[in-house]
Write a structure and sequence with these properties.
Elements (H helix, E strand, L loop, with lengths): L10 E2 L2 E2 L6 E8 L3 H16 L4 H22 L7 E8 L3 E7 L25 H9 L2 E4 L5 E7 L3
Antiparallel strand pairs: 1-2, 3-4, 4-5, 5-7, 6-7
Helix pairs in contact: 1-2, 2-3
Length: 155
């Protein structure tokens, strides 16, 4: 899943942002849950600068928080020797991210459906469901230790 190019200028408060057409973030973070908040804060500032709606920003916030925290807690087991690689690209029309951990991965088919009656009290699977509901595309790699997210700006 590659980030599509967009030749439109981002909008800020109804005016074109002539300073940048695409914002990129590419960083490896230690497997410490507090590091997630720092990335989310930066992400939200960038979404606002590109004129994304509060609704879209909220959804991206929720999906990214889940993806990063899942990578830290479940993928890397909060192991201080392991890192999470976070890539983000934002333009006027699209958001793209890839979150990769150094864990063993998982099989999506093994994650229980949290909406089934027998799983309602089980916390497993809720994060994956949230991610799927807040972005347009979700794709895991074959190993299950990397996820790509795409959200197209709402009209």
């Amino acid at each position: 899943m590659a980030f599509p190019s967009d030749d439109k200028k981002p909008m800020i408060n109804g005016q074109k942002n002539t300073q940048q057409e695409l914002w990129r973030f590419d960083k490896r973070i230690d497997s410490e849950p507090d590091n997630c908040a720092k990335i989310i804060e930066t992400l939200l500032v960038q979404l606002e600068s590109f004129g994304w709606s509060n609704r879209d920003s909220f959804g991206i916030h929720m999906a990214m928080e889940e993806a990063i925290l899942n990578a830290i807690r479940h993928g890397n087991q909060c192991d201080p020797e392991k890192q999470v690689h976070v890539k983000i690209e934002i333009c006027h029309e699209r958001f793209y991210s890839q979150v990769t951990d150094q864990g063993a991965g998982f099989r999506l088919c093994d994650v229980p459906d949290p909406t089934l009656e027998e799983n309602l009290d089980n916390t497993c699977g809720r994060g994956v469901m949230l991610i799927k509901n807040f972005v347009d595309q979700v794709q895991y790699n074959e190993a299950g230790n990397s996820v790509e997210l795409v959200k197209t700006r709402s009209k």
